[in-house]
Amino acid sequence: MELFFDRAAVSRGGPDIRVSGRFGPGINLVSGRVGSGKSTVAAMAAGLLAPGEGAVIRQGIRSSMISFQFPEWQVTGNTLREEIKSWGADEGEILLRAGLVGREGDDPLSLCRGELKRLVLSCIFGKAWDLLILDEPFGALDCSGKREICRWIEARRSSIVVLCTHEQRFLPRTDFLWEFQGHDLVCRGTMPAALGDWELAPPFVKALLSRGIVPHNISEDDLAEAACRIHG
Amino acid sequence: MIRISGLRHGVLDILSLLVPAGNTAVIGPNGSGKTTLLRLLAGMEEPVQGSITIGGEPGGTLTVGWVHEFPGRNALFSRVRDEIASPLQFRHLECDEILKKVEEISGLLGISPLLDREPESLSGGEQVLVALATAMVSNPGILVLDEWDSHLDAHTTAVLQEHLHRTGVRWKVQCTQDMDLAASADTVLFLSGGQVLACGPPGEVFSEHLGSCWYPPSWRWREWSSSLTGQR
Q1: Could you give the strand order of the β-sheet that contains B22-27, starting from the edge strand earlier in sequence?
Q2: Domain presence at residue A174
Q3: B220 FRET partner, CA 20 to 30 A, in A44, A105, A117, A205?
Q4: Statement to judge: residues A21 and A121 lie in one domain
């Protein structure tokens, strides 16, 4: 199972965004500044945007889903009940997972953004997908919500997970690190070897590395464990 | 001073609250009433019960700059330049003056290259920058930012915070899920279930949340680092 970007390039009114490489099973973190092209990569991976040059080739992928940066783009129901039904999901299970029990009659667009994000993510994570593309899934979630989503993502390691985010504090244990150099997406490699090449690494990761301490990975637990190594 | 008395509106239930002028961060779990409070401060909603005054004037009487949590929803025009100019055009300012102010604010926020783009073609982060420029172009008395940073990377957020500090806007109220950003405010207002859990300087508010995910990560990492330095 593989998602292959064969010298794919696309222009969206600015400089060309270029991607080459293979995304395999595991958690692939795509890191980059605002406007670098993370959402464009997500859209290409999902097949929603055709590259102007090159190709995006799926091999062995039977099902895929994208979580958009703005969750309202994904809403079709007039109530939470209708919305959950549209996903073919169990209403009680999703409401519980999203922390929205008792709100089934509400209009999804009456939810605050964090609640709407939880609803959509709960529906998405309620099913198994071979390819799961998450475009800024942490946006607007409170810190406990971010921790929860990290756990959900980590449970999908057997799928190809493409996680496009600028989040630096709450991240899942990651397998492959990709990073934009300008508007070219490059693979930095696997964890933890890739950490040394991560230009936009969180400040604490950089601080640890500068002291010769290499975290095993980038989750909160990994960084806390590395901090404990500081203290012996 | 922002003065709130006997407020009951939606989920909000605030008996009495005084917030000094300056930069205020509103934090709290998803659904705690942060956006509702911001909408009241901006005069977009009238309190069902109770009152809000800002600098002694009723809420809604000041010129308001507002950045929505869904920045794309507010865009009215098909060119970024026209979008930023719109608050001034609606006031029938002279074209030369509008042009000058649009160029100034775009330069300040580093988005001059985007002026001829369509808002729809921008990344989520770029849309926020355009919304911020549109909010600031008319020199508002109060600037209300509703989770504007959730679409921005840490570097861009830090740069924009610097710009915001220099704007001279007397009241800046921003709701955020970034506790490091909240920690840089003059005042932190912590809402939970529509009520005020705490309000005061960041050190005072966050000292009650040491060890929880609400404690600013950079503070935690700084404490780890300083204890490392102490060990050396």
Answers
A1: B64-67, B142-146, B171-175, B22-27, B187-192, B195-200
A2: yes
A3: A117
A4: no
Q: Which of B34, B123, B127 to mutate to test the interface with A (most CBs of A within 10 A)?
A: B123
Nearest residue to B144 via CA among B206, B52, B209: B52
Residues A28 and A115 in one domain: no
The structural domains of chain B, with segments of one domain joined by +, span: 2-204
Asked if residue A137 and residue A52 are part of one domain, the reply reads: yes
Count of the separate structural domains present in chain A: 2
CATH number of the domain at A36, please: 3.40.50.300
Alpha helices in chain A (DSSP H): 38-45, 80-86, 91-98, 113-125, 143-154, 203-210, 220-230
Q: Per-residue pLDDT for B73 more than 80?
A: no
CB A137 within 8 A of CB A113: no
Q: What pTM was estimated for this model as a whole?
A: 0.87
Minimum Cα–Cα distance from A143: chain B residue: B213
- Quote the domain boundaries for residue A57: 2-63+130-195
Of residues A115, A147, A211, nearest to B213 (C-beta): A147
What per-residue confidence (pLDDT) applies to B232?
45
Mark whether A112 and A143 lie in a shared domain. Answer: no
Name the 3-class secondary structure at A222: helix
Query: For residue B228, which residues of chain A lie inside 8 Å, CB to CB?
Result: 211, 230-231
Are A46 and A135 within one domain?
yes
Query: Looking at beta carbons, which residues of chain A come within 8 Å of B11?
Result: none
Residue B86's pLDDT is: 93
Q: pLDDT tens digit string along A155-191?
A: 999 999 999 998 998 999 999 999 999 889 999 999 9
ipTM score: 0.84
* Nearest chain A CA: its distance from B203 CA (Å): 19
Q: Can you list the residues of chain A whose pLDDT is less than 70? A: 13, 231-232
| DSSP designation for A46 | T
Q: Which fold has domain B2-204?
A: Rossmann fold (3.40.50)
Q: Could you say which of B35, B121, B124 has the minimum Cβ distance to residue A12?
A: B121
Q: Which residues of B touch A (CB under 8 A)?
A: 28-31, 34-35, 69-70, 72, 113, 117-118, 121-126, 129, 147, 150-156, 177, 179-180, 213-214, 217-218, 221, 224-225, 227-228, 231
Q: How far apart are CA A214 and CA A209, in angstroms?
A: 6
pLDDT tens digit sequence for B184-216: 999 999 999 999 999 999 999 999 998 899 999
